[in-house]
Amino acid sequence: LTKKFLTCALAVPFALSAYSASAVEAVTLRLAHNLDPSHVVAKTLEKMKQDLADLSDGQMKLRIYPGGQMGGPRETLEMLQQGALDMTKGSASEMEPFESAFSVFSMPYLFRDSDHFRSVLYGDVGREMMKLPEEKGFIAIAGYVAGERSFYAKKPIKSPADMEGLKIRVVSTPTTNRMIELLGGAPAPIPFGEVYTALQQGVIDGAENNEPSYYHTRHVEVAKHYSQDQHTSVPDYLVIATQTWENLDQEQRDILMEAAEMSEKYQQVLWDEQVKLDREKAMEAGATFYDVDKTTFRAALQPLYDDAAKNPGKAAWIERIESVGK
Ligand code: GCU
Known about the structure:
With 326 residues, the protein is an alpha/beta fold. The protein contains 15 helices and 11 strands.
C-alpha cells in the first residue's frame, strides 16, 4: 500500500488530496479502438488506464480492445449509442456522420500552424464541440493531436496534376470525397484496417494520413512516395457513451476527467517525438518524402470554402476557428 500511495502522491499530489477521503466506487469501462497497440494514441490510452487506476486506488479500470477487434469507429460509435460499449476513439471525420460540426476539421489548410490547431482543440471552440453529440449518445472527453494528413501513393504526387485518375482512400465524408474529386482523383471509402491489402492488390493507388499512421500500418511497404502537402489536421477523440457517463457518480467523473486531461498532455509530447521518429523509420523502410508546393493544392481546393460559405452553420465554425489567436 505504501508504495502505491507514494507513486500516486508523486505523480498527482493534487488529485490525491481530492479523492482519498472516501473510497471510490468500483467500475470497469470497456474501450475499443482501431489502432495498432504501437500507435501513439494507443500508447496514450494504455497510460491513461494506469493513471485511472492510480487516481482511483485501483477502483476504476479500463479494459482496452485495440486493433479494430470490435470493428471500425463507425461500428464502435454505434455500439456506444446502443449501450453495448462504454468508450471508443474516433477521429473528427469519423464523428462527422453523427455531428456535422466536426466536418470543419476536414477543411483543407484551415489551421495556420500546429499552435493554432492546439489553441482550437484545447480552447473554447474545441471544448464546446466535444459536448455536442451528447444527445446522439456520446461525448468526447479528450482530444488528441494528429499532426497533418498528407497523400502517399505508389508514385510521387508533387502537384494536383499528379493526382489525375488516382484512386485514393479517404475516411469517407462529403468533404473528404469532394477534396479528392477537386484534385482530379477518385475517393475510395475503405476501412482503415483494409487499406494495406487494398494498396497491395492495387485496388487503390494511394491514401492519406499522418506519418505515425503511415508507418505503423506498414502502408509504407506498399506505397513508398509520401508527399508533404499537409492538407488537413484531423484530431482523434476519446469518446464515452452518454449512458455510461450518466451512470458514473461525481467522484468517478472527476477522476475520469483528470485522467483524460493527463492523457491529452502526455499525448502531445509523445506525438511530437513520434512524428520525427516514425518519419525516420519510414525512410529506413524505403519511403521518400517530398516537399511540395502547397499553394497549388490550396488553390485547387478553394471551391470547398466557396461551398462552405453557403452553409451558415459551417461558415460560423470556420470563422470562429480562424479568429482563434488573432
Ligand atoms: C488516423 C487517425 C485514426 C483514423 C485513421 C484513418 O491515423 O488517428 O483515428 O482512424 O487516421 O485514416 O482511418
